[in-house]
Amino acid sequence: MAPASAPLLRHYVDGAFVATERRFDNVSPVDGHLVAHVCEADRATVDRAVAAARRALREGPWGETSPAERAAVLHRIADGIQARFDDFVAAEVADTGRPVEQARTLDIARGIANFRMFADLAKTTGSELFEMRAADGAEVMSYVVRKPLGVVGIISPWNLPLLLFTWKVAPALAMGNSVVAKPSEETPSSATLLAEVMDAAGVPPGVFNLVHGHGPDSAGEFLTRHPDISAITFTGESRTGSAIMKAAADGVKEISFELGGKNAAVVFADADFDAAVDGVARSSFTNAGQVCLCSERVYVERPLFERFVAALAAKAAALKIDAPDAPDVQMGPLISREHRDKVLSYFRLAVEEGATVVAGGGVPRFGDARDAGAFVQPTIWTGLPDTARCVREEIFGPVCHVAPFDGEDDVIRRVNDSAYGLAGCVWTTNLSRAHRVSRRFQTGLVWVNTWFLRDLRTPFGGVKLSGLGREGGRHSLDFYSELTNICVKL
Ligand code: NAD
Ligand code: 6OD
Asked: Is 390 a catalytic residue?
C-alpha cells in the first residue's frame, strides 16, 4: 500500500494543474520504494488539452508573438530550471536512480541548454530570398515565411527524461507552436516540475500542456490519433514508432521519429589504446547502457583483440554500481524491474547462443534494500556469430559483444549489416582512414575518437529502423514550422 506522503503528480492543462481519477504508481528502481502517485489521463483530459492548445494559438497572444518575444520566454524557462536546479536533480534521480552527478552534469544541464540554444537560434534564423526574372523581363522575388505548424504532440521516453523532453518542447515553442506533451510513465517527475516552471515563467495558458499516462489505449494513443494535432514528435522504441505512424496516418500528420539502435564501435589496431578502452567503456556502460547511442557491438582489429577484451573487462569489473548518492558511484540501476527482466533474458540468451561471458552476466548482490532494485552487472560477451539475436537486437542495458575483424571492408560490411542505423564510433589515429570509414557507416551519426560529444546545432537522427528526420539546430526549427513561399512579380 502506498504511503499517504507520496506526492500526486497531476496533468497541466490550460494553465492549471488538474487531477484525474485513475492513478498509477511510480516506484524507484533503486529499492522499489514509492516515488509518486501519478494521474493517468483519460480521453477527455487529452481532448481538453488539445482544445486549450488550439485556443492558445487562435485566440491567445502566443500566435502573434515575434521570435524575439518567444526567445525571451524560453530564456525565462531556462532561468526557472536553473533556479530550481536541485529540485530537478532530485526528481530525475528519484525516477531513474541514476548517479546524482550525472543528473547534474548531463540531464538537467542539458535541459537548460536546450531552451537557451533554441531561443537564440530561433531569434537569429532568417528566411531565404531568391531573385529571378519572369519571361517578360520583370523582376521576381521569392521569399519564405515560417509559420507554426499548430498543435504539436510530444511523446518522450524514460532514458534521458528531461533532456529528451525539452529537446522537443523547446524548439516547438520557439517556432510559435503550442504543445501537448506526454513524458514516459516511468519518469513523470521532471516534466511535472517543468510545468511548474512554465507557469511561473508566464507561459500563456494552453501553450504548454502536460498529460501523464501510458501508450496504448491511454494518453499516448489518444494524442497520436487526435484529429486536431498537426504533428507528432516521438522518441522511443522502433516498434512504438511503427504503431504511432499507423495511428497518425489517418490525419496525415507530420512525423519526427528518434528510435532504437544497435550501434557499433570500431577499434583499429592503430588506435590510441587507452583512449579507445576508456571510450568504449563509456559508450557501452553510460547510464547503465540506456542511451540510444550506446555501443552494443564492438569490433576490434584482430591484432589488438585479446588485449582490448581484457582491458575492457577490467574496466567493467571496476565500475562502481550503487545508489545515486553513494560516494564515487558510476552506474545506477536499470529503469525498472520489468526492463531488468528483459535485459536478463538477453543475458541468458547470449549463453544459449554460445557466448563467452568475459565480464558480468548477472545481478549484483548488496544484502540490503537495493536487492529489491533493478541493478545488473556491466556485461561483456565474445564469441557470438554475427547472426546471433544478441548481436542484432537492441538490448538497452550495460552490455556489449566484442568481435575481431580483419580490415576495413570486413568491418564496414558487418557494421552495416543491421536493421538499425543510428550512431557509430571509429577509434583510429589514421586521419585518412577516420574519414574514409566514417563516410561508409550507414548511420546518421559517427564519432571519431570520442562519443556523445554534441554541438546542439548539428543534425541528430538515424536511418533505417532508427528514425525519420533530424533534430537539432535549424533541423528542428524546420520540422516545427510550416514554410510558405511567397513569389512576388515586381
Ligand atoms: P517506448 O517506445 O516504450 O516509449 C516511449 C514513449 O512512447 C513513452 O512515453 C510511452 O508511454 C509512449 N508509447 C508507448 N506506446 C505508445 C503508443 N502505442 N502510442 C503512443 N505512445 C506510446 O520507449 P522507451 O522504452 O521509453 O525508451 C527506450 C527506447 O527509446 C529504446 O529503444 C531507445 O533506443 C529509444 N530511444 C531512441 C532515441 C533516439 O534519439 N534515437 C533516444 C532515446 C531513446
Ligand atoms: O543529445 C541529444 O540531443 C540527444 N537527442 C540524445 C539522445 C540520446 C538517446 O538516448
From this structure: no
Which residue out of 185, 254, 292, 400 is catalytically annotated?
A: 292
pLDDT in tens, 160-172: 999 999 999 999 9
Candidates 314, 307, 315; CA nearest to 271 is 307
Are residues 301 and 268 in contact, defined by beta-carbon separation less than 8 angstroms?
yes
Q: How far is the CA of 164 from the centre of ligand 2 (A)?
A: 6
CA nearest neighbour of 46 among 183, 219, 172? 219
Residue 475 and residue 473: Cα distance in Å, rounded? 5
What values do phi and psi take at 165, rounded to 5?
-65, -50
pLDDT tens digits, residue range 130-159?
999 999 999 999 999 999 999 999 999 999
- From CA 374, how far away is CA 400, in angstroms rounded? 19
What is the dihedral angle through the alpha carbons of 466, 470, 471, 477, rounded to the nearest 10 degrees?
-150
Q: H-type helices in 84-188, by residue range?
A: 85-96, 100-102, 109-124, 161-174
Domains of the chain by range and CATH? Answer: 8-259+466-489 (3.40.605.10), 263-455 (3.40.309.10)
For the question of residue 92 being annotated catalytic, the response is no
The ligand minimizing its distance to the Cα of 258 is 1
